[in-house]
Amino acid sequence: MVLVITSLCVISKISDKVQINKISDFLKSGVVFFLGILLTVFVGVVSLEGTLSSSVDGVAAKTTKAVVSSAIPVVGKVLGDAVDTILGCGLVLKNAIGILGVIIIIGICVMPIIKLLVIMITYKLLSAVCQPIADAKIINLLDQIGDIFKIFLAILCAISVMVIIGTTLVIKMSNSGMMYR
Fold first, then answer.
1. How far apart are CA 167 and CA 154, in angstroms?
2. How many structural domains is the chain composed of?
3. Which of 8, 44, 81, 87 has the most crowded Cβ, counting Cβ within 10 A?
């Protein structure tokens, strides 16, 4: 969709006869609106799924401990406590790896965001600097290309936020599940 918007902007800014500014503006606002709806639905679904699966995980951990405690006659209670300790140690290890994973994901997402931000600022600055010496069509085209990169930046930021939220909610789901044990 963004490529269609880009081609419509280029055609509209270069041609005197074909003026389709309003269509490209409408499609730009549609992309931004769709991105907002997508983020809202993603966070809602992941949060709901996280709440449901964490209670199931907690019940499973409690059931495992109860089965081990009651199935083995003499040392069942000791083994049940050992299962509880193993689950707790696994939780601490998983949290450390999860936090490291979120930090790595943020590090991966930052570089493309910075690159797109620099490209967007470059096009906007180029249109401002070239205004006294270039044709108005070229200036408007450079400004529109800067807006296109702003849309790409919004899409990249939204996807980065979705990845980070998804990762942290997966970590939170297992933490909530262990509360029930």
1. 20
2. 1
3. 8
Quickly tell me which residue has 């709806």 as its tokens: 37
Q: What is the pLDDT along the chain (181 residues), one digit of tens a residue?
A: 888 888 888 888 887 787 888 888 899 889 888 988 888 888 777 767 655 555 555 555 566 556 555 666 555 566 566 666 666 666 666 667 777 777 888 888 899 999 999 999 999 999 999 988 988 888 988 999 999 999 999 889 888 888 887 777 777 666 554 544 4
Phi, psi of 120 (to 5 degrees): -60, -45
- Do the domain assignments include residue 72? no
1 assigned to some structural domain:
no
Angle at 179 between CA 174 and CA 181, to 5 degrees: 105
Q: Which domain holds residue 126?
A: 18-59+107-179
